[in-house]
Amino acid sequence: MQRDTDQFKYKIKARKSLHQGFYTMDSLTVSHQRFDGTEQEIKRELLVRPDAVCVLLVDFNADKFVFVEQFRVGAMQGDNPWLIELVAGLIDKDESPEEVGRREAQEEAGVELGRMELITQYYPSPGGTNERIHLYVAEVDSRDAYGIHGLDEESEDIRVVTPSIDEGLAWLANGTINNAASIIACQWFMLNKERLKQQWL
Q1: Which residues is 10 bridged to in the sheet?
Q2: Calpha distance 69→20 (Å, rounded)
Q3: Dist CA 128 CA 42 (whole Å)
Q4: CA angle centred on 57, ends 54 and 60, rounded to 5°
Q5: I need a surface site. Which of 109, 131, 146, 169 has the fewest CB within 10 A?
Q6: What is the pTM of this model?
Q7: What is the structure's pLDDT at 152?
Q8: What is the pLDDT of residues 96-112, one digit of tens each?
Q9: 155: left (phi over 0), alpha (psi -120 to 50) or beta
Q10: What is the mean pLDDT of residues 123-132?
Q11: How far apart are the C-alpha atoms of 84 and 94, rounded to whole Å?
């Protein structure tokens, strides 16, 4: 659906920094036009984050995915805070999203990426953060993917896991894979697997 965004107006009336640490939190007062044409003012806290890049790594020759597993504080209320995830990182330097994906694949999984294809860009939680995700799929040689990786200065402790494609999709189905970027990427892969396989093999 095409939206005429010119008919909807908003204005940031006040912005105050609440916290600056590993992440930044701001307090915003915003006025915006309602659908009925009237105006309302809202106050919200906004988690300010750089855009992130997430990459689904696929090895069609070996019929494998390459995922990473690491501890996540936001998942501590669940059964297991060690999550199976995509290689990922923040765009915090003068790099393109593709360059970030290639750098993070080396840092987190010890692999070099071949061809990459953009899956989509999306906001994971726009009610509370301005972060945008650049989601990719990339070809990789899974024989190079093993061991523990991550940067000591970022307190990273990242384990590489290389399930078969069928096993990885089973993890999606049974809830082992339970984070948004990985779910979206794997579901996209299911829809595009044959086309991608024909292009890359």
Answers
A1: 32
A2: 27
A3: 13
A4: 155
A5: 146
A6: 0.92
A7: 81
A8: 999 999 999 999 999 99
A9: left
A10: 95
A11: 28
Task: Name beta bridge partners: 28.
Answer: 15, 44
CA distance 81 to 58: 24
Question: Per DSSP, what are the bridge partners of residue 134?
Answer: 53, 121
- pLDDT at residue 2, as a whole number: 56
Task: List the catalytic residues.
Answer: 154
Terminal Cα-to-Cα distance of the chain (whole angstroms)? 36
Can you tell me the distance from the alpha carbon of 133 to that of 56, in angstroms, rounded to the nearest whole number?
13
Query: What DSSP line would sit under 57-117, residue for residue?
Result: EEETTTTEEEEEEEE-GGGTTSS--EEEE-EEEE--SS--HHHHHHHHHHHHH---EEEEE
Contact 73, 79 (CB under 8 A): no
Average pLDDT (72-93) is 93
Please name each of the domains of the chain with its CATH number: 5-48 (no CATH), 52-200 (3.90.79.10)
Please choose, from the candidates 103, 108, 124, the residue with its C-alpha nearest in 3D space to the C-alpha of residue 49: 124
Helix (H) or strand (E) holding 166: helix 165-174
Phi then psi for residue 94, to 5 deg, are: -85, 70
- Amino acid code (one letter) for 104: E
Q: What percent of the chain has pLDDT over 70?
A: 97
pLDDT band at 54 (very low <50, low <70, confident <90, very high): very high
Q: What is the CA radius of gyration of the chain?
A: 19
Euclidean distance between CA atoms 130 and 74, whole angstroms: 17
